[in-house]
Amino acid sequence: MSPSEHKNTQKKTRRRIIVLKVSGEAFGGGENPLDEKKISYLTSEIASVKGASIVIVPGGGNILRGESLKNRGYDKADSDYLGMLSTVYNSVCLKHALAKKGLRCRLFSALSIDKITIPYNPEAALTALRAGECVIVAGGTGNPFVTTDSAAALRALELGADILIKATKVNGVYSDDPIINKKAVFFKTLSYEEAVRKNPRVCDRTALTMLSNSNIKFMVLNIFKPGNIKKAAGGKCPGTLIS
User: Fold this and answer.
1) Which of 209, 205, 206, 229 lies closest to 219, judged by CA?
2) Consecutive sets of 10 residues in the chain, 243 residues long: mean pLDDT of each?
3) Which of these, 183, 148, 198, lies nearest to 168 by C-alpha position?
4) Which long-range contacts (CB under 8 A, 24 or more apart) does 100-104 make?
5) Angle value at C-alpha 210, between 79 and 136, nearest 5 degrees
6) DSSP 8-class letter at 214
7) Which structural domain range is residue 21 located in?
8) Most buried by CB count within 10 Å: which residue of 73, 91, 108, 144?
């Protein structure tokens, strides 16, 4: 086989890589931060994706938001680290829930918690994906002052992802908060430049800037609408497409 034929074969056999950033609200909230029904629904949505490699980056707002601690006088770095630990809670629960659905999972963390997670590095994550495993990455970037959105963007770039999906509670990107402002305009498509300029609250500007020179498609969608993740992973954006 010639080098060009080998390269074409690799292109044909390569599985798409999908990075899924999941809002903490998808796990629960309030007095029930780890809601069994919500987690079961989430794992069913993830398990519905076929023919692609999945990397999941969970948020932790259902358990604790670092920003809320900062408002109570906590040091910014400490509050961010506690927020990152919340993502580990969600990740461990998600790993076990996905195993019940028959999905083999590998749980990495950017924070060093080697009793229950594997220290994250891109090559190890790619090896797990090639072996057909689902990858979960907890702990954000492992550094304070960085959002989980930016962590998901970084993972997408490191792993050569095709699509980054931000799964949240709104249908996509709006000109304003649609829950507060009923006249907020919905954007079906945006360029990265437009998204950075409009600075939508649902997306982190740093994450958008990081992705702006890439070929990664960034989709923002409603996690609570059944089938949305499967559609997005298949390339049909049911929310807002930023590219």
Assistant:
1) 229
2) 46 80 95 96 96 97 82 87 94 97 96 94 97 97 94 97 96 89 92 87 88 96 97 96 96
3) 148
4) 100/43, 101/43, 101/44, 101/46, 101/47, 102/47, 103/43, 103/46, 103/47, 103/134, 104/131, 104/132, 104/133, 104/134
5) 60
6) S
7) 15-242
8) 91
Is residue 157 a contact partner of residue 216, using CB atoms and an 8 Å limit?
yes
Tokens of 61: 């707002």
What CA–CA distances, in Å, run from 169 to 18, 32, 35, 221?
19, 17, 16, 8
Strand pairing of 105-109 and 134-138?
A: parallel
> What does pTM read for this prediction?
0.91
Domain of 109, CATH number, reads: 3.40.1160.10
Q: Which two tokens stand for residue 77?
A: 């770095």
Asked if 105 and 99 count as a contact pair (C-beta separation under 8 A), the reply is yes
Cα 3 to its chain centre, rounded Å, is: 35
Structural domain includes residue 87: yes
Residue 213 lies in a domain: yes
155 and 161 in contact (C-beta within 8 Å)? yes
